[in-house]
Amino acid sequence: MADGRTPNGADEGGSPDRVGPAPAVRPFLVTAGRVAPTSSGRTMPVETQVVATAEGLDALDRLSFEQHDIIAACRQPQSIAEIAARLRLHLNVVRILSEDLRAAGQLTVYVPNTDATHDSSVLRRVIDGLRAIPDSRGVLRDTD
Amino acid sequence: MASVPSPTPGGFSVTPTEPVAGGAAAQTAARPPLPVKMVIAGGFGVGKTTAVGSISEIEPLTTEAAITEVAAGVDDLSHTPRKTTTTVAMDFGCITIDPTLKLYLFGTPGQDRFGFMWDDIVEGAVGGLVIVDTRRLDDCYAAVDYFEHKQIPFAVAVNAFDGKVEHELDEVRWALDVAEHVPLVVFDARERGSVRDALLVVLELALARSEG
């Protein structure tokens, strides 16, 4: 990924939960200065699923930088949070670019419907699925 | 039809630029699973990422998100809360329930005793788990307040570091001042089964809520 980011303070001492400021100039450029995604008026939830369309994959060679990387990463459905993490982009940058790519017909955006995710039959399926997960000792990790 | 979100039976508002059915999209776009979101909150170092990592099918990922910080500045003569946007690291993982359903776990920071507004991350979550370290109880007040205020079903999970808890659960409940109906459990963030059971407590609350 071509970006001009510089190391920030995320790995230094202090409070690692609060990372240093995200590289400011590059996101500003790629989003043409926009700070909030719109069109529907609603912010895309972090778990919003996105998947490349055939048009998007066809256009891959003609896309550049972040747009290219997003389409390339979305051959399989992904959440926008996963895209942001894997491409090391700020979540809001992914939101804005996803909206652009959707408008261009290169990405399909599935915004979850809260009525569906909160439906009792859905919750029961999640509960049953979780119950099926066996006990086992997880790998020891550094706390947070 | 072009850009108007349309509810579909699958539980999504799909906003394709052309109808999905019959469009060229049909040949590539696997239909994504319905994402159900839960939030794991708590102070720094309390075990959020450990808990997510214990049960997630992927290594926890980290991304940067913006949250709104409400600071009650003591030197602010106007006494109006100042709101600033803070960029925080958010860790998350997921569990595929089946090809059509996926549970996402988002770890949100919340060690600040003033308060954060995590709407950007939490909006639409079915429930929350507030992880507590009994040695630093006040780290979790912001999270408890947030879920209570937002009326999001939540449980408090005391992380038993080294297998022991410093305080009795009744003392913890008293200190946190959480209502009787809020479940309080002891768990071990390193144990998959223990994390699973804590999440199930929250999901049962969410289910009870949805059944009204």
Task: Outline the structure in words.
The complex is a heterodimer of chains A (144) and B (212). By secondary structure, chain A is mainly alpha-helical. Chain A has seven helices and three strands, in the order αβααβααβαα. Chain A has one domain. In chain A, strands 2-1-3 form a three-stranded antiparallel beta sheet. Chain A is elongated, with a radius of gyration of 18 Å. An eight-stranded mixed beta sheet of chain B has the order 7-4-5-6-3-8-9-10, with helices on both faces. A two-stranded antiparallel ribbon of chain B has the order 1-2. Chains A and B meet through strand 1, helix 2, strand 2, helix 4 and helix 5 of A and strand 2, strand 3, helix 1, strand 4 and strand 5 of B.
Count of distinct structural domains of chain B: 2
Rounded mean pLDDT score of chain B: 80
**SS summary, helix count of chain B:** 5
Taking the alpha carbons of the first and last residues of chain A, their distance comes to 27 Å
Query: Spans of chain A of 5+ residues with little confidence (pLDDT < 50)?
Result: 1-18, 138-143
**How much helicity do the residues of chain A have?**
25-40%
Give the radius of gyration of chain A.
18 Å
Q: Most extensive chain contact? A: A-B, 73 and 80 residues
Helix-strand pattern of chain B: EEEHEEEEHEHEHEH
Distance between the termini of chain B: 35 Å
Name the features.
heterodimer; A: 144 residues; mainly alpha; three-stranded antiparallel sheet; 3 strands; elongated; disordered C terminus; B: 212 residues; alpha/beta; Rossmann fold; two-stranded antiparallel sheet; 5 helices; 10 strands; 23% helix; globular; disordered N terminus
